[in-house]
Amino acid sequence: MAGSTPVSATVSAGGAPGVLVTPEARRPPISPWQDAWRRFRKHRLAVVCSGILITMIVAVLVGPLFYRVPIDGIDFSVRLQGPSWDHPLGTDDLGQDLLARILYGGRISLAVGFAAMFVAVFVGVLVGSLAGMAGGKTDAALMWVTDLFLSLPQLPLLLLIIYLFRDALTGVVGPEMGVFILIVTIIGLFNWMQVARLVRAQFFSLREKEFVEAARALGASRFRLVWKHILPNALGPVIVAATIDVAAAIIAESTLSFLGLGFPPDIPTWGRLLFDAKDNLDFAPHWALFPGLAIFLTVLSINFVGDGLRDALDPRRVK
Amino acid sequence: MSASTTQARPVPAAVGQRLLEISGLKVHFRTDDGMVRAVDGVDIGVDRGETVCVVGESGCGKTVTAMTVLKLIAMPPGKIVAGSIMFEGRDIVPMSPAQMRAIRSKQIGIVFQEPMTSLNPVYTVGQQIAETVRHHEGLSKKAAYERAADMLRLVNIPSPQRRVHDYPHQFSGGMRQRVMIAMALSCNPKLLIADEPTTALDVTIQAQILELLTEMKERLGMAVMLITHAMGVVAETAQRVVVMYAGKVVEEATVEDLFANPRHPYTQGLIRSIPRIDLAATTHTRLEAIPGTVPSLLNPPKGCRFAARCRYVTEACLAAEPPLVEKAPGHKAACIL
């Protein structure tokens, strides 16, 4: 840490090695976040992976604006072709361009991943902080619910919920939006437990900290204590858990789509593409390979970024 | 040099008037082993502009008494069983949490023992001081920052304008304690409770912090309740001393009177166990200590609580608890001798 700001040591004119530091030459105040960023930058793999991740995100957001091939342009004369200049990632059994479909599908997959993460983190922080702050019976009840959710068999339950509610919801807000809301909600609601436990544990240790006591002695209300003093200090592990949640949500969405229970067939999410490709694996492996690679790269990058963030936000863990 | 926005309150004309009057205070804690009577009938008075030291060894109820004044003890398991805490004529004990929040730091400030961990690591010290004054006095962001810088200047932190933007990890222990004092004083409290403010600091810094407290007290005209276990600190800063033992007050006197003529054997023991550098140089006697340990507050002994460790113990001591009575003008002790 020290030594990375050599400007701060102004050596006196006499040339005595680093004795005289002029009063004005000093390190600028470094916030804990800046400090974390400095540590994050040292984690090479995480930096490379955040590069990959950002490229992916930019590609799916901006890509379709430049690569203007329609996602549903059916052309049976070029069906099931491998990569070529016309179709860089090949075509599917209807002759639809795969690159266009992967770029468009990436929007949905990533949007589901991040939205579901926000749902999970919101619920998790809410439950965790309530339990951690209240203690006693409230805590016991909330943790009981958390354990209950952890012990539920998730996949069968997801399938059941989708069967039950898909039609009702798509009737109200349209097929695409309806499925999006449904999937984000249920993936979010099945992934908040880790965050809740984490936040609760953080609260238990932080609320006994002297600075919280000191803030209370200065007249801070309970809400203020939680919002301004405890939560910002508990954020590090939550951010790490959140990145892992994004990856988990992308996988979950792919699984659902692969089982044919996600988005309707005309919306090509990455999982949906894999589902469509599975019957043609023998003679058109590229069809499954590219969406699979997209999922793999994204999830792997997110996990490595999470790894880097953990090291950056929890300095004690660095060896 | 003096802080412009911190209105230096003139030492009130009514010196001698009671600011804080703790009477018959009993604070008990429910534990798995039973009721711990941490504070068991304590009377302490603090006049305006006065420094009162509360001394006693670890576990005698000093800190619990101080924390109870601001109702900072965890309730439950803690409970104020009896007694009243009159602050400016109003009883704090029945006050609601909202009323307590208005009293904290605006009327009564507190400085804790552990400066290293008493500041929130994610905010600059300026933000932390500014937050308090904005919250209590509704100042604008800019004015609050100016007040923060003024407060840092007041507690003698060099280049305060720049230091307000620094994070706690950029301050040393002594400097952090100065920041804590600045924070506690930022809303001009009438009473400052300092709970062993120098215990975690090394000796030279201790002296500086005590000097600072005395200076602040004189400049702002507030009263100080200083909690400590160091008799040296008492001699240096206090006007009046309250000696506590096992949840009770055993002696109360002016500082001169207490050191010249300690009435309670416990106080005598405390004074005898002060290291004497003049004697250590010439003789090779061991440092004197009071034998034994503080009795359990779960089930305090009948009779005088100090009896088991007292060199003058008699039958009468074991039979009934001696009350705190005035032995000489302004000098109370709870001993039958």
Automatic annotation (TrEMBL), chain B:
Residue ranges of domain ABC transporter in the record: 22-271
Example of a GO MF term: ATP binding
Organism the protein comes from: Roseococcus suduntuyensis
InterPro entries: AAA+_ATPase, ABC_Ni/Peptide_Import, ABC_transporter-like_ATP-bd, ABC_transporter-like_CS, Oligopep_ABC_C, P-loop_NTPase
Membrane topology annotation: Peripheral membrane protein
Family per record: Belongs to the ABC transporter superfamily.
Gene Ontology biological-process entries: peptide transport; transmembrane transport
Pfam family of the protein (one): oligo_HPY
Entry protein name: Peptide/nickel transport system ATP-binding protein
Top-rank lineage group of the source organism: Bacteria
Subcellular location(s) per record: Cell inner membrane
Classification via PANTHER family: DIPEPTIDE TRANSPORT ATP-BINDING PROTEIN DPPD (PTHR43297:SF2), OLIGOPEPTIDE TRANSPORT ATP-BINDING PROTEIN APPD (PTHR43297)
Predominant place of localization: membrane
SUPFAM superfamilies: P-loop containing nucleoside triphosphate hydrolases
GO cellular component, one term: plasma membrane
Keywords, alphabetical: ATP-binding, Cell membrane, Membrane, Nucleotide-binding, Transport
